[in-house]
Write a structure and sequence with these properties.
Number of strands of chain A: 11
Strand content of chain B: 15-25%
Protein name (chain B): Linalool dehydratase/isomerase domain-containing protein
Distance between the termini of chain B: 17 Å
Distance between the termini of chain A: 32 Å
Number of helices of chain B: 17
Helix content of chain B: 25-40%
Radius of gyration of chain B: 24 Å
Strand order of the largest sheet of chain A: 4-3-7-6-5-10-11
Order of helices and strands of chain A: EEEEEHEHEHEEEEH
Number of strands of chain B: 18
Radius of gyration of chain A: 18 Å
Domain Linalool dehydratase/isomerase (chain B): 52-382
InterPro entries (chain B): Ldi (IPR041411)
Structural class of chain A: alpha+beta
Shape of chain B: globular
Largest sheet of chain B: 5 strands, antiparallel
Shape of chain A: globular
Largest sheet of chain A: 7 strands, mixed
Pfam family, one (chain B): Ldi
Oligomer: heterodimer
Amino acid sequence: MNSSCCTPPGSGSATIVRPVPTVGGSFRLIDDSGAAVTERSYFGKYLIVFFGFTHCQTVCPPALARIDQALEELGELANSVRALYVTVDPERDTPEVLHAFLAARHPRITGLTGPAEEIESMKKAYHVHARRVDDPDGYRMPHSAFTFLMGPEGDYLTHFADTVDSKEIAAAVQAFPAVR
Amino acid sequence: MLAAPDISGYPALDDFQAGHVQHVRNLVAQQDNEWANMGSMLWGQEWTDAYRYQLTQMAYTLGFAHFHHLPAAPGAFRPAFEEIIRKMQLPEVWAYWRETSRGSIRNNPDITELREGWRDPVFKENIMYSGRFFAILGMHSMLFDSDQYDRDGALSFRWDPLFQGLGPEVYEYSLSSLADNLYWQMAEQGWYGIVCEPNCLFLVCNQFPILGFRFLDLRKGTSVADEVTQAYQAAWDKRGILNEYGEYWRLWLVEQDRPEMPLEGGGNAWTALNLNAWSRDLVHRLYPDQIRDEIRRTPDGLVTLAEPTAALEARKARAAGREPEFTRDLDFTWRAPAFGYVAGCMAEVGDQENLRGLLGYADAYLNPTWENGGLFYPRQDRSFDENGNLIFMDRLTGNAMLGYARLNVPDGLWKMYHDPWTAEHFREPRVTRIDGTAEMLRAWYDREKALLALTLRPVAGKPADVTLRISNAEAPWKLFRGDVFAADSAGTGTPGLHTRREGNDLVVSLPLPVRTNLTLCF
C-alpha cells in the first residue's frame, strides 16, 4: 500500500495520509533464459502476469492454457503483449526448470524466478498468497489464481479471477490503446 | 366530507420496537466522548462489548427498522445513522488499535516479543473494526441512495493527543479506498479472511466486509461480492468451516494454522446470523442442530441460554451416540454478548417460537428499562441470581442486539443483500426530513393505492411541534390527519396544520400532542 502525504495550506502542522492500495511495482528477477530482468525490461509492452509453480496440478495448467488462448485470440496485437509466469516456488523452479516446463507446453510465456526474498517482494507487491504445505510427495504451494494485466509502463490496469475465460482477457487488452 | 383511508393495516412499529429505535437515538445524541450507558466490562475497548460493536449493531438496528418496517421514512433514520458513522471515527472508538496492533502472546504463543504497532485503524488487520465500519457505510449508501462517503477524505481518523505536541496525524479514506484496502488484504490471505487482533482470524468478522462489498457493488455496477464469496467459500471448503460437532470454527490462529473454540457462548449464532446474508442454505441447514444444545426452556416456559460448558457436554454426548443429560454449570462466568448473538440469529433464521421465548426471558429477568422513550436492558456483570437464573447483561446485547432482533425479520439480512432497494424505490413519496422530536411508527407507501401512510407520536409523551419534508410529492394530493381531511394541493387547509411546496417536496408542519396518523393520497 502506498500513501500520499501532504500538509494542506492552513492546517498548521497537520499531517494527512491517504493510504491507497497499489498493485505491482519494481522487481529484480531472472527469466527462464537466465537473464536478469526488472520491470523496466518489459516497458513498452502490456504484461499478462500470473503467479504459480511448475509442480502445480490444479490451478496453473488451466490458467496458462487460458493465457495461451488469449494470446492466440489477440492475433497481431499479441506482439504488444508479454506473458509472465512468476514462480512462487523458487526453490524448485530454477530458470532451467522453468524453461523446460514452458518451452514444452507454453512457449509464448516467459518464466520468472529469483532469490526467495525477491520473489517474496513481488508477491507482496501483487498481493499474492502462497503457502508451503508439506505432503508425502514433497510439498505443494497453494497460491492465488489472479491474472494481472499491467500497462506499458508497469502500471496496474486490471486483474481477473480464476473464473475468467480467454476471451475476457483478450477483450481487456483490446480495450487499451495498441502499443506500436 | 372526504373520508380518510384506513391505514391500520400497513406495517407499524410496536412499542418495544419503537423503544429500541429511540434508545439508539438517545445514545448517539450524547455529546462526543460521553458514553453513558455504553461503558464496557473491560478497559481498553478490546472486549466484545466495545463501542465499535455497539455502534455498528445499532446502525444495523436502524437499518432494519427503515428497510423492513418504515421504508418511506429515511428522514427518521438517516441523521442517527450518520451520527453513528461520525462517532465511529472518534479516537475513543478506534485508538485501542495503537496498542492492540502490537500483537499478543496470548493469541500467538510462538512470539516472544511484541512488534511495533500503528495508529491507522483500517490500514491493515483489525477487520473487527474496518469490516463493520465498511458494512454500515455500504448499508448507508443502499438505504439512502448516497455516495457521500465515497469522496476522497470523506472518512478520516484524526490522531491528536492534547499534550503530545507533535501535530495532528489524519488518516483519510473514501468508501472505495477502504474497499480496495480490504479486498487486497483478503487476497493476500488466500481469501480465508483478514485478522482481527494480530494472528486471530474470526469467521464472523469477515462476514461484515462481504456485506460492504455487496452494497458497494450496487453503487458501481460491479460484482466484487460474488467474487469474494466464491473465493472465500473455496478457501474454507479446503480447510473445513466446522468442527467435529458441527459448530463453526470461532477463530483461526494464522501462524499456527489451527482453530480455537473459546467457550464463551453464542459463537455459532453470531457467525450464522451474519453468514446468512449470502450463505442461507448452509446456515438454515446447520441451525437446528447448533441451537438445540445452546438454549434451554425455563420452568415458566421461556427460553434462556445453556451454559457453554453444559452445551459442550451435550454435544459430546450426541457425538458419542448418547442422549445428553442437560446439566447446569452455575460456576460458569458469562462475559460475552451471547444472549444478543442468539436472539439476533433466531430473528434472522426465522426461529420465531424460540425468539419469543428468549425475548420474554429478557423482559422477565433482565431488567428492561425505559428512559426518555428509549428501551434498553442495563448492564449486569453478575452471571446468575440466587435462584440460578441467568441475569448477565452486556452492553452490546442490552443496547443493540435485542433491538436488532426485534426489528429484523426472517432472513432480513439476506433480503438486504439479495433484494436491496433500487431506483424505483427512491422515486416514491417518502419523508426525507423530520424537524422536531417525534417518533415515526409507520411510513409506508402503497404504490397501487398511491397512498403514503404515516404514524407519528411525541417522544416520551412530550408534545412537540413537528415539520415533515415529504419528497416526490407531486400534485394533486390530499392530506388527512387522523380521519379528517386536513389539506390538499389546491390550497385548501385546516387550522393547526400548515403545508407548503418547496420544489418537488411537500413540507407539512403540525403540533403533535399525541399519536397521530397522517395519510397523503395522490
